[in-house]
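[recover] target loaded
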């Protein structure tokens, strides 16, 4: 006898699905019973993930910083699977440049990927969530939003601070409609985007500062997404969940 899983039949959409954290989130949500629309810049980054999960997933190429690209991708998802129940705004790019070294082009590139995409996808899926009176929006913020960036640059830190503010705004606006909006603020998840850009001396210095003495695993981040997506998390909204091994406690 098959037992139902917490989110059986729900449709989740995950941006940045081809990256390390995105792949872990897709695996976790599939384990929870979701069908998953996977969104990334290129289909190639999602090929192995699509092969692993078969017909329960759909891979869609999309430049999330561009409104027309989001509209086209959303139409593909609706045609195949219907309306989105769970939105995970996970896509992002890193910039280490501080203010004097940040060009206006880099500023726009980072905020486009890290913030505009979350706004555009939220805008796309919110009407159907409100109509059904159920939905989950889960945004990826960062420790950098609270610290000004320990190793991250100005544009990245600002984009993640704004992501937290977007979360608060969505939570306030949508709570009465049965839709929650929360964020996760991880620090130093073991991904190529983060830890492999550090040299060994930087890695060791960081590990000495993190009370648990290690980096966050992608699967731990994905578990937090599953928690916030679950039906039993409906009384949590407007929360930015710290996931930093004790590096910052507030």
């Amino acid at each position: 006898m098959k037992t139902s899983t917490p989110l059986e039949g729900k449709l989740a959409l995950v941006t940045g699905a081809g990256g390390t954290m995105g792949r872990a989130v897709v695996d976790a949500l599939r384990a929870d019973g979701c069908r998953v629309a996977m969104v990334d810049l290129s289909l190639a980054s999602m090929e192995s993930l699509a092969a692993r999960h078969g017909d329960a997933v759909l891979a869609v190429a999309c430049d999330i910083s561009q409104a027309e690209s989001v509209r086209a991708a959303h139409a593909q998802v609706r045609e195949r699977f219907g309306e989105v129940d769970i939105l995970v705004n996970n896509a992002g790019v890193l910039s280490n440049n501080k203010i004097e070294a940040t060009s206006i082009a880099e500023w726009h590139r980072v905020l486009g990927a890290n913030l505009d995409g979350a706004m555009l996808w939220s805008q796309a899926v919110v009407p159907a969530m409100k109509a059904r009176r159920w939905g989950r929006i889960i945004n990826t913020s960062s420790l950098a939003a609270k610290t000004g960036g320990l190793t991250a640059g100005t544009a990245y830190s600002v984009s993640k601070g704004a992501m937290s503010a977007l979360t608060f705004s969505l939570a306030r606006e949508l709570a009465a409609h049965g839709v929650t909006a929360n964020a996760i603020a991880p620090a130093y998840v073991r991904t190529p985007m983060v830890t492999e850009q550090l040299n060994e001396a930087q890695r060791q210095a960081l590990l000495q500062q993190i009370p648990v003495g290690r980096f966050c695993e992608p699967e731990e981040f994905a578990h937090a997404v599953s928690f916030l997506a679950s039906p039993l998390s409906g009384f949590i909204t407007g929360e930015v969940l710290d996931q930093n091994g004790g590096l910052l406690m507030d």
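[recover] notes: The longest strand covers residues 179-186.
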